[in-house]
Amino acid sequence: MSSVHVRSSFKTFLATNVPSETVIDLTAQFDDIRDLLDEAGIGMGDAWLGIDFQADDEIPISIAAGNNQGVYRESGVVQIHIVDVAKLGIGDSLLARAEVLRDLLRGIRINDIRIESVTPPSFAQGTTLEFESGFMSCTIMISYEYDKNL
C-alpha cells in the first residue's frame, strides 16, 4: 500500500480533475461489492472508478539517510479500474473513459509525486476487476515516484 501522502494527493487530484467520476478506494476492502457501492452512494446502474494503491519500494537516495534524516524515494503503482454495467457496446465507453484518464495523468506531477508512466487500458483477466454482479471493467496502471525529505 502506498504512503498516506501519495494516497491522499492522488485521490484529491482525481476528485478535482474528474469530478464526474465517483471514486472508490478498494485498498484492503473485503466487503461485498454491493455494500461498497451503497456506502459510496452508487447505484447498481452507475459507472464508477475503483482505485488501488500498490507500493513497490522505498530507498534512500541521499548519502546521510537514516531514520530521521535524508531523502527517501517511494515508488509504486496506482491501479485505476474503470467500471460500468455490463451490456453490449460498453467496452468502447470504458476505453473512452480510460483514455481521458490517461491523457490527464501522462507525464505530470501531482504536487511532489512524479508520474513515470501510464499503461494502455487492459480488459485481460487478472489485470482488472472480476465481477459476479453485472459489471465490466478495464484497468490502467500508473507508475509513480515520490521523494520524501525527512
Can you give the helix content as a percent range? 25-40%
Overall spatial form: elongated
N-C termini distance: 20 Å
How many domains?
1
Instruction: Tell me the total number of β-strands.
Output: 6
H-E order: HEHEEHEEE
- By secondary-structure content and strand pairing, the structural class works out as alpha+beta
- Counted by DSSP, the helix tally is 3
Give a short account of the largest sheet: 6 strands, mixed
Q: How big is the Rg?
A: 17 Å
Average pLDDT figure: 92
Unreliably modeled segments: none
- Output the strand order for the largest sheet: 1-2-3-6-5-4
CATH topology (level 3) name: STM4215-like
Strand residue content: 35-45%
Name of the CATH first level: Alpha Beta
In words, what does this structure look like?
- The chain is an alpha+beta fold.
- It has a single domain (4-149), classed as STM4215-like (2-Layer Sandwich), CATH 3.30.2000.
- The chain is built from three helices and six strands, in the order αβαββαβββ.
- The chain has a six-stranded mixed beta sheet.
- Strand 1, helix 2 (33-40) and strand 2 form a beta-alpha-beta unit.
- The longest helix has 16 residues, at 90-105.
